[in-house]
Amino acid sequence: MTNETVTTTTAAETPVAAPEPLPHGLGVSLPAADAGAKTEGTFPYAADLWAEGLLWAAVLRSPHPHARIVSIDTSHAREMPGVRAVVTHEDVPGTPRHGRGTPDRPVFASEVVRHHGEPIAAVAADHPDTARMAAAAVIVEYEMLDPVIDPEQSFEAEPLHPDGNLIRHIPLQHGDPDATGEIVVEGQYRIGRADPAPIGAEAGLAVPRPDGGVELYLASTDPHTDRNTAAACYGLSLEQVKIVVTGVPGATADREDQGFQLPLGLLALKTGCPVKLTATREESFLGHAHRHPTLLRYRHHADAEGKLIKVEAQILLDAGAYADTSAESLAAAVSFACGPYVVPNAFIEGWVVRTNNPPSGHVRGEGAMQVCAAYEAQMDKLAKKLGLDPAEIRLRNALATGDVLPIGQTVTCPAPVAELLQAVQDFPLPALPKDTPEDEWLLPGGPEGAGEPGAVRRGVGYGLGMVHMLGAEGADEVSTATVKVHDGIATVLCAAVETGQGFTTLARQIVQDTLGIDEVHVAPVDTDQPPAGPGCRGRHTWVSGGAVERAAKMVRTQLLQPLAHKFGMSTELLQITDGKITSYDGVLSTTVTEALDGKELWATAQCRPHPTEPLNAEGQGDAFVGLAFGAIRAVVDVDIELGSVRVVELAVAQDVGRILNPAQLNARIEAGVTQGVGIALTENLRTPRGLIRHPDLTGYALPTALDAPDIRIVKLVEERDVVAPFGAKSVSAVPVVTSPAAIASAVRAATGRPVNRLPIRPQAAVVTGQ
Per the record, which residues fall in region Disordered (predicted)? Predict the structure, then answer.
C-alpha cells in the first residue's frame, strides 16, 4: 500500500465536457464519408460483387497489332465442360460500334484487328479458370499486316479504318504571319505514352432482368453515357438497361473500358445468368485508353527584351487505333500551345491520326500536359540565349485577366500567373546536403545509389501551366441534383460519381452550409437518376456542386417561407447559422429542427454553365468556360555520370478560386504533383512494333512514396471566378500538367542538356567530358 490519498466523485459531481462540434459546411476539412470503409477494407469495390448463380467471363484479345481475320472457330471452346456461352461479332444484336467521343470502335473485331489487345470473343463459364481456358481455345486464323506505328507515316499509309487515318486537323492562325523577332529558338520534343494505371483493374457484374434487359454493376465514371452505349449495342431501349455505380477505386481518366463492359452484358443476356468479369492488370493495360504520345516542333520569336512576338508550332498526336476523345485532346493541345503567356501572333498546326498503336483517350490534363513540356523548354532556351533568369523571362510574358488567348478568346476569369510564379520564385530553396551534414545525403537512385557525390549537380527549374475546366467547343455541361429533407436528415441524389475527387464530401458540405443540417447522406449513383455527365476535369465541383447548391437553396426557401410569412418579412432577411434560424433584427430565433417540425421537403435543380462554341476553320472561338493556372519550381539532384535524377522539392502555387475543403484540396494537389513526377521520370508504356511490352506494374514504373519529393504548397490564390458556383476552380489537373515541365527544366539547369523527351531517359541527363 502507498500513502497516496484516493478521492472519488459521484457521477453527478463529475463535470461533463460538452462534445466538440463536428466540422461542417464549406471551407472546413470535412472528412470523407467513406474514409473509414476504405481504410478498414470494407468498401464495396466492383471486384467484390457477387450474385446467386454467378458465371465468370473471359475475353480473347488479339496478340497482333494489325492483321486480317481469316476465320474464327469457337467450336472447341463451346464444347468444353462448364462453358455456358461464347460470343463474337456475330452475336451483337444492335449497333456494333462504340466509342467515348467518336463511335468507331467495334465491340468485337470481325474483319481486321487494329491494335494489340483488341477484343475478338468472350466466354462465360462456371469457373474463372474454365472461362480463361475456353477463351484461349477459340481458334483465330490471322493474315498478318504491316502495322503503322509511326504517326508521321500515317498520313501516307493505307487507310487503317473506313473513316481514314486523319481524325482531326486544326490550323490555328492568330495575328500577323509575317511578324518576326530578333531572337529565335527552335526545338523538337517527344512525349511518351502514359497509362492512367488505376488503383484497381476493371471489374463488373451483369445481371439479366425479367423484362429482357440487363443491369450492369460497374465502377463507371460516366454511367449515363455507358448506359446509352450498352443499350444501342444490345438492341434494347434505354429503360431496359440500368447501370449501378459501385465503388470506384480511383480514376485519373475515363476509368472504364467500354470494350470490357459490353461483352459482359452480352453474356448475361445470352445465358440468362449473372456474369462477372475481373480483368487482370495485363488486360487493363491492353484495353483502356492511354495518354496520347505526341511529337511537337516549336519556333519562338522574341524581341531583345525577351517579350514574345510570335510562336509557331506543329503538334502531332497519336490516337492509336480508334478516335475516342482524341479530337478534344487536340483542341486542348492547340489552344494552349503557347501556354499562360501573352503571344500576339501564333500559328499552330495540330493533327491527330490513327495508327496501330494502343488506343489513346482522356487522361488527366490531356493535350495541355504535352504542350506545357514543349513551350516551357522553349522558354528556357529563350532565357539562355538572352542571358536572362528563367523565371524573369516568364514574368515578362505572363498572361493576366483581360489578355487574349491565341484562339481569340478573352481571359475573363482570374489569371494570377505572375503572382503564382513570384510566389514559388521567392520561396526559400532547400538546403544543400553540405549544409546539413547530420542528414544522410540520398544520392539520385536511392539511399544505396551507386554514384559518387562529386558527380551530383543540383538544378532549379520552373513550369507554368494552364488547363480548361468542363468540356469545350460547345459541349453541353449540364448536371441535375435533388435534395430531400425528412426527419432532420438531408439526402442528396445526383449521378455525379465519386472518383476520388471528393464530390460526395463537397455535396454534404454544401447542404450543411445552406440548410444548417448536420446529417447529410449522398445516395448511391445509378442511371435511374438524371444524368450528371463524366467525372473528369473537376467538372463535378462546378456543375454538380452547382446543381446541389441550387436544389438546397430551393429547399431553404421552402423551409423559411412559412416563418417569413408569419413574421411579415422576406426570406432574404432570415439566415441559417449552426443549425439556428435568426432574423436580421433578432425578433425570430429558432432551430432548423423546430422549423422542419416533421415536414418532408425536396427540390430538384440543374446547373448549366454558359455555352461555348467550336473552334472555326482558323482555330478561333470562345471554346472554354473556365481556366485554371499553376506555377511550380522544381529542385533536382542529377548524377551527371549515371543520368539518374532525384526530385528534391517541388514548390507549388496555384489559382484555386476558393478553398472549399482545405485538406481535400491539398491532397489533390499533392497527388497531381506526384503523378507528374512519374510522367517526367518513369512512366513510359513501351510499344515496339505496336505490341505493349511488359503490360504490368513491374514493367510500367509508377512513382511510389519513396519517389515522392517534398511538396511545398507555398501559395493558393483565392480569387473567385464569378461565373463558377462558389467561385471554385479545378485543382488536380494543373499540377499534373505543370510538374513534368518544371522537372525537365530543372534537369536542363543541372546538366546543360536540352532534355527534349519525356519521360527523361538517363542518357539525356549524362554530361560527358566532366
Answer: 1-23
